[in-house]
Amino acid sequence: MVIGLGNPGPTYAGNRHNVGAMVVDELASRTRSALRAHKARASAAQVRIGTGPGGVPGPSAVIAVPHSYMNESGGPVKALMGFFSVGPERLVVVHDELDIPAGDVRLKLGGGEGGHNGLRSISKSLGTRDYLRVRVGIGRPPGRQEAADYVLKDFSPTERKELPFLLGDAADAVEMLVTQGLLDTQQRFHAPAAGS
């Protein structure tokens, strides 16, 4: 199950905090599927993610975006997991990450929430932090801007030009994670760029 975090409604749609939901929209587009309202207070779709050896469609998965506000994400996520009989070890949460440079994608299993209210809500609802995260770098706010204000602002015009590449990379990371596992995906996405 792949969950993209964000806040509901058009006011928040372009915010940095909603990049997880944007990645799930990208996955829906790639799989030619439509997210539909689910009784778990979310939009969800059952899809085949990525491609396996020989071009065979990848494993089946549920992609979803909670309809709750970020700090209440845990309820819908837990309800979806119950409905689709998915354990925490099969959960992938895609979210924005201040502590990663803008444009970078990192993956990890478990660990702290780093002040992220969506992750905190999910960990509390599930009673565990041991689930996979695809962390989409949005960088730190400039100057003295508060982190809370920064994440709730839309991507800047310059960032918006790069956004399709970032969403593409993050969707690639989700596909590879589901089809090839965490270690191989980390090796690809955590490797330093050539020439650096």
Automatic annotation (TrEMBL):
Catalytic activity, as annotated: an N-acyl-L-alpha-aminoacyl-tRNA + H2O = an N-acyl-L-amino acid + a tRNA + H(+)
EC number: 3.1.1.29
Molecular function GO labels: peptidyl-tRNA hydrolase activity; tRNA binding
Compartment(s) of residence: Cytoplasm
Site description Stabilizes the basic form of H active site to accept a proton, residues in chain: D96
SUPFAM superfamilies: Peptidyl-tRNA hydrolase-like
Binding positions (tRNA): Y12, Y69, N71, N117
Matching InterPro entries: Pept_tRNA_hydro (IPR001328), Pept_tRNA_hydro_CS (IPR018171), Pept_tRNA_hydro_sf (IPR036416)
Primary location group: cytoplasm
UniProt xrefs under Gene3D superfamilies: Peptidyl-tRNA hydrolase (3.40.50.1470)
GO aspect biological process, one term: protein quality control for misfolded or incompletely synthesized proteins
Active site annotation, chain numbering: H17 (proton acceptor)
Keyword field: Cytoplasm, Hydrolase, RNA-binding, tRNA-binding
Assigned GO CC terms: cytoplasm
Site (Discriminates between blocked and unblocked aminoacyl-tRNA): N7
Superkingdom of the source species: Bacteria
Similarity section: Belongs to the PTH family.
Quaternary structure and interacting proteins, as annotated: Monomer.
Role noted for this protein: Hydrolyzes ribosome-free peptidyl-tRNAs (with 1 or more amino acids incorporated), which drop off the ribosome during protein synthesis, or as a result of ribosome stalling. Catalyzes the release of premature peptidyl moieties from peptidyl-tRNA molecules trapped in stalled 50S ribosomal subunits, and thus maintains levels of free tRNAs and 50S ribosomes.
NCBIfam families (UniProt xref): pth
Designated name of the protein: Peptidyl-tRNA hydrolase
